[in-house]
Write a structure and sequence with these properties.
By secondary structure, the chain is mainly α. Helices cover 64% and strands 6% of the residues. The strands form 4 sheets. The chain has a two-stranded antiparallel sheet with strand order 1-6. The longest helix is centred in the middle third of the chain and has 27 residues. The protein starts with 5 loop residues before the first helix and ends with a helix.
Amino acid sequence: MASPLGTEAETLLPRVDTMVGVFYFGLFAMSFDFVSGYTGYLSFGHAIFYGTGAYFVVLAANGQVPLLAPGTPFMLMLLLAGLLAVLIALAIGALSFRLSGVYFAMITLGFAQVAYVFVRGWDYVSENPKDGVAVSTDVHPGGFDVGVPGIDALNLEIGRLTGDTVEFLFVSLSGTEVSYYMVGLVVLVCYLAMQRLIHSPFGTVLLAIRENEERAEAVGYEPFQFKLAAFAVSGFFAAVAGGLSGGYGRSVAPDSSMYFLVTGDALLASIIGGFGTLAGPLYGRLFDETVREFLSKRGSGGGLLPYLRDHLPAGVMEADLVGGLTVGGAIETFLNGHASLYVGVIFVLFVLYVPNGLLGTVRDRLGGTVAKQLPDYLDRYRRD
């Protein structure tokens, strides 16, 4: 960055390709919060829907999904992946929602682990299913276009290395930057759709179920049906998130899509961002990735460790601290490869001292949602 604080900004802020991942995984975390944060039922197996979307897109692109040609528009793939996840969610939810509490969490985890083991050993996926599958350029040479299917002028291709570039007047966007905006656009539309559902009578019933399920049933609602519907909606958007992941990376692997720790990352994002806030998990994921990248051990560009290596004087780096340990050695010892450790510490601190998460705490301070309270707050500030 050609500015006085360019190096510091590069050190603190996440890269564009990191932000693309924040968007699609943030959507997955929001879908997790849609059912877990608004009904109180923790779905520990939510990765099954994320993985379903990713695998569906990649397999469809390779011509391995019956009745779908490899050139099927990407937006249609996302829609079909979401509908497939809805069917899976209805099947799993019909059994799982007969339980509650930790039993519900465990049975959903069990379903996801069954799917994970199945996909890892499914030879139809690839010759080595444990390593996943990539989009074959021989079968699917085209791109994954986000936009209006059938109108080339309203489509832009996403992809880590294959995305479209845009040059218009003084604006020049790389493939990664185009992916940032297009993936972000899909995530925004999905967020607005979930937000609309949350603020509808349907969402009101979900909140009633979360607060007191017996009372909700006593006033005439059928909690089972509403929980099942919320689970299906959540599965749809989780699959869309997985499809974006598969389309952007042009590959999918079981360990990064269907493994239970993928759901764990969504839970982490929800707790940091704020349960029951919908947008909070996106901020939680952004916070998580920003900290990880800031504490990364990459040798060039970005991150605290490279910054200290490049900017601390040699005399300081070689200064002895104790027992022959230099400042440079201490920095390497405490920072190199320990990002996950510090993220874990931050997670514990959030649970203890910021139980409502980032967005939840802001709402508590404002006395309501940011969209409703911020204008009044700014107006009072101007008057004062």
